[in-house]
Amino acid sequence: MTQPKKKSSLEQVLKLVEQLSPEDVLELQHQLSSKNLAWSNTNLEDPSERAALLEQEEARAGERVRQAFQNLQDQGVMDKNGYLITRRLPPDMERGSECDV
Question: Is the pTM value of this prediction over 0.85?
Answer without folding.
Answer: no
